[in-house]
Design a protein that fits this description.
The protein is an alpha/beta fold. It contains eight helices and twelve strands. The protein has helices spanning about 40-50, 70-75, 90-95, 110-120, 140-150, 170-185, 195-200, 225-230, and strands at about 5-10, 15-25, 30-35, 55-60, 65, 80, 155-160, 190, 205-210, 215-220, 235-240, 245-250.
Amino acid sequence: MILKIDGIAFSYNSHPVLDSVSFSIRPGEMVALCGVNGAGKSTLLRCILALLNPTNGAVLIGDQNVRNMKTAERAQKMAWVPQKSPEMELTVFDVVLLGRLPHGSSRPRLEDMKVVERVLDMLNLSHLSTRPMRTLSGGEAQKVIIARALATLPRVLLCDEPTSHLDMKNQLDVMKLLNRVTISQKLATLVAIHDVNLAVRFCSRLLFLKDGRIFAALRPEELSEDVIEAVYGVKVSIVEGSEGRPLCIVPV
């Protein structure tokens, strides 16, 4: 197992947000983290990254507790993809080069430049390398942020609602990209996401957070109307979609 979450609990000002959350992610597996707004998805991601200090439990990469790692070591092993990329004057190449900072170079080395070139080529972004970030579309910019994360050469990829500001086509493109690199680079990828249908289509497992706990952990084909109603409080119909995977429909 690459990433193991073992009994994580967290509270804000004595208000419990997470309670005994446990799961693991294998190499080459992309797992969806689902739940309503305020369920604790972003908080859990920040606990995994050690940006927040859990009140209980541990996060392990292999057999190492991330709390026992130095900051640079954590940054080398775990990469972060936020909801939306900030507008920057930097070029695409320079933004992706920022992903090499955890490896300790104050000035870029030839090795760093080669990593950036490989990542841009792998994501079919080489033609954008000299473009300023501010000139990109939302979908292009989000792919560049994923490239920045991959330039770190991480073992774990954590994504906080990476499709939330994108149109339908770019949502599909970003999820396809995340799925492809997860498999090809043997990453342990955790994606916080609101769109259950996107999660079903591209993720191998779905974790549903409710009341600070994992309410359900299931494979896409196991998705049920009862789980959706219990987690989101809405009645839906589950029908068979493409490739035999379920499709969640909210009746009019």
